[in-house]
Amino acid sequence: MPAVDVADEFETIRRLLAPLAHPEWGRGLSDDVALIPSRRGHDLVVTKDALVEGVHFLATDPLDTVAQKLLRVNLSDLAAKGAEPFGYLLACHWSERCGWPERQAFVEGLGRDQDMFGVALLGGDTVSTPGPASFSITLMGWAAKGRIVGRAGAQPGDPVFVTGTVGDGWLGLRAARNLLGLEPERLGALVEHYRRPMPRTAFAPAVLEHASAALDVSDGLIADLGHLARASAVGLTLHLESLPLSLAGQAWFEDRADPVDALSQLATGGDDYEIAFTARPGVEGALRREAERLHLRLTRIGEVTAGEGVHVRYQGEAVPIDRAGWVHR
């Protein structure tokens, strides 16, 4: 077969995307819809996120990692709901820099993560654009009927937890832009987190079983906790000194002159894709046992209170926050 210099949408679908399709539900990507069987006793859970070049990823980011980040940020949404993902719809808006090798790299990244997380492509759309490249996924999953964990449900007295570490996404973007002066090993770990965050899908059953309210941390920990507090009509206290930091994050933090300002930046930077959640006080032991079984770091970072909004403290003192997180204009 002769080499393909410029791939059209149908060639891209036939040669690259169709092999990823679910053998039954995806209908060979030959139709405009996917046919999904119903499952008695379960709710269908659907989420959608997009990544835009220059907004969510850099023009220098390899497209295989862009594809993996795209899938993972959607998986993170479902994990925070306690849902089990199964398939997705994909939209690709290829820019002029996205020739055949770039498209192939994008699909290879998706394929690796499909195998890792047990999901399959069901359909979608692919077009060309004179503007920046952008991609979006509509991800679908199942949750036990009536059991999905929403943002509402937190009550005063509930402890607040977060999985993993906080701040590596924001630091990773700075590392990818060559704005950090850390050891190469630390820089590499931060860039990896920024490009390929790890969704906490394995912890989703524990969220479903024990969380009273939950969401994933994408816009910034303080901003996202604010969304949870608002939906639950409660207040929430966050203790900055309790933030879990990675080795790279700790190395960066130790070089800061103002610890409060540094922790505030980490708590508002975004792109962490960890799960922040509240739970009833009596289930903390069960949550910690499950996290330990999964070798997942779990940190208690605050508590739910009466009132409204997020109240940030450092060693007991109130901390004013001017910007809680990322907001798209």
Q: Could you characterize what this model shows?
A:
Helices cover 35% and strands 24% of the residues. It contains ten helices and eleven strands. The chain is globular. The longest helix is centred in the N-terminal third of the chain and has 19 residues. The strands form two sheets. It has a seven-stranded mixed β-sheet. It has a four-stranded mixed β-sheet with strand order 1-4-2-3. It is α+β, with helices and mostly antiparallel strands.
Give the topology.
Elements: H1 9-17, E1 42-52, H2 63-81, E2 84-94, H3 100-117, E3 120-128, E4 134-144, E5 159-163, H4 168-176, H5 184-195, H6 204-210, E6 211-216, H7 221-232, E7 235-239, H8 247-254, H9 259-268, E8 275-279, H10 284-293, E9 298-305, E10 309-314, E11 317-318
Task: Label the structural class.
Answer: alpha+beta
**Count of DSSP H/I helices:** 10
Low-confidence stretches: none
Strand order of the largest sheet: 6-8-5-9-7-10-11
Percent helix among the residues? 25-40%
Overall mean confidence score, pLDDT:
92
Biggest sheet details: 7 strands, mixed
Please provide the ordered H/E string of secondary-structure elements: HEHEHEEEHHHEHEHHEHEEE
Dominant shape: globular
Report how far apart the termini are. 46 Å
What's this entry about, in short?
Helix content is 35%, strand content 24%. The chain has helices at residues 9-17, 63-81, 100-117, 168-176, 184-195, 204-210, 221-232, 247-254, 259-268, 284-293, and strands at residues 42-52, 84-94, 120-128, 134-144, 159-163, 211-216, 235-239, 275-279, 298-305, 309-314, 317-318. Strand 10 and strand 11 form a beta hairpin.
